[in-house]
């Protein structure tokens, strides 16, 4: 029989298991701490367990740990990590260092199904969702990379890597629970941001679940016509439905969303586009992050000019919109926003 991944068991289930094999109940908490607080991925390393118990666990269970197989370091110190899963699929995570923080950008799916035209990941097929422990492992591995390379702790997490987090809703929320739990990594949910291309129904569910983390919407155009052109998801999740779900989210959680807006030359960077964005921001109270466009192989877009970007942001600010320009990091290693596409030799054949 195939071994079961021990990390799918809750603490209660572990406790019941150890009672069945006549081990003290406190052993369950010890194993749970090894798995989640200490991030151990080998039963032999669980040094406070008896050899008999470690052998039992080795014979009956496995730990389907994510493995860090490749690192690329950008000239700006950004690090892209190729993460190999137990079934040989590969996802990418990014460590983004700043003067005051260390941010992990993590993936939630193998590939993506949304086919946004400005995004390299959207050109891949979605092969499967990641489970909560695979998402958790990414965070641990990026955290360890930050400590090893820069002697600095991980301070922030953004679910902005490969995939659409809200199409993997249950596992994403389970991973946040593990990351924020005192028995896990103990990080504050206020240091976590989940980014969505806009799944209205699931945004409303986030409100019902009264999540404590931040929410970002990849907006990129503030009219139905333009958003339909670059984000096919808008055809079934219109701006009207997104506005309603976002306002519901804010009502339920007390947290305002952030809009992400990639400035695409001669497409969404004019003053008319800025006026449309201001109108939408008056429907949904949010701050705006303007993001530099990063080239994608075979892409049809270009980065806007500095002059147009300045005019655009000044118009937003003049109209009372909180606006920040985010300069891309890791462009030289294809680690910047929208560039994650597994350009490494570990790529699974099914994703080529």
Order of strands across the main sheet: 3-4-5-6-9-10-11-12-13-14
Tally of helical segments: 10
**What is the makeup of the main sheet?**
10 strands, mixed
Multimerization state: single chain
Tally of extended strands?
14
Q: Structural class from helices and strands?
A: alpha/beta
Average pLDDT metric: 91
Please write the string of helix (H) and strand (E) elements. Answer: EHHHEEEEEEEHEHEHEHHEHEHE
Strand content: 15-25%
- Stated plainly, the CATH topology of the largest domain is called TIM Barrel
Backbone shape: elongated
What does this entry show, briefly?
The protein has 2 domains: 59 residues, DNA polymerase, domain 1 (Orthogonal Bundle); 285 residues, TIM Barrel. The chain has 10 helices and 14 strands.
Describe it for me?
The protein is α/β, with parallel strands linked by helices. It has helices spanning 11-20, 26-37, 51-60, 132-150, 169-180, 200-208, 224-230, 239-253, 271-283, 306-318, and strands at 4-5, 61-62, 67-73, 79-84, 90-97, 102-105, 109-110, 128-129, 156-159, 192-196, 214-218, 258-263, 287-292, 323-326. Mean pLDDT is 91; it is low at 344-352. It has 2 domains: 4-62, DNA polymerase, domain 1; 67-351, Aldolase class I (TIM Barrel, Alpha-Beta Barrel).
């Amino acid at each position: 029989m195939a071994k079961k991944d021990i990390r799918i068991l809750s603490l209660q289930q572990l406790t019941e298991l150890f009672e069945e094999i006549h081990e003290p109940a406190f052993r369950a908490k010890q194993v749970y701490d090894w798995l989640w607080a200490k991030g151990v991925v080998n039963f032999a390393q669980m040094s406070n367990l008896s050899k008999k118990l470690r052998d039992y666990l080795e014979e009956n269970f496995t730990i389907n740990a994510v493995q860090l197989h490749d690192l690329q370091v950008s000239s700006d110190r950004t690090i892209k990590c190729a993460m190999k899963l137990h079934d040989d699929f590969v996802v990418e995570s990014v460590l983004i260092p700043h003067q005051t923080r260390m941010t992990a950008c993590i993936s939630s799916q193998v590939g993506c199904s949304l086919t946004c035209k400005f995004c390299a990941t959207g050109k891949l097929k979605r092969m499967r969702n990641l489970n909560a422990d695979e998402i958790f492992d990414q965070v641990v591995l990026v955290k360890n990379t930050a400590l090893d390379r820069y002697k600095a702790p991980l301070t922030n997490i953004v679910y902005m890597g490969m995939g659409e987090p809200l199409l993997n809703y249950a596992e994403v929320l389970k991973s946040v629970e593990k990351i924020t739990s005192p028995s896990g990594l103990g990080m504050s949910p206020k240091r976590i941001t989940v980014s969505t291309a806009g799944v209205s129904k699931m945004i409303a569910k986030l409100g019902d679940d009264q999540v404590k983390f931040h929410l970002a919407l990849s907006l990129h155009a503030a009219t139905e016509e333009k958003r339909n052109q670059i984000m096919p998801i808008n055809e079934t999740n219109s701006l009207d439905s997104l506005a309603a779900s976002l306002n519901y989210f804010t009502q339920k959680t007390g947290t305002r969303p952030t809009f992400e807006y990639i400035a695409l030359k001669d497409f969404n960077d004019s003053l008319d586009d800025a006026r449309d964005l201001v109108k939408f921001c008056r429907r949904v109270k949010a701050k705006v992050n303007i993001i530099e466009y990063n080239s994608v192989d075979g892409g049809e877009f270009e980065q806007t000019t500095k002059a147009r970007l300045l005019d655009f942001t000044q118009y937003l600010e003049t109209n009372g919109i909180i606006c920040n320009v985010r300069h891309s990091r890791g462009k030289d290693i294809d680690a910047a926003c929208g560039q994650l596409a597994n350009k490494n030799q570990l790529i699974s054949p099914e994703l080529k």
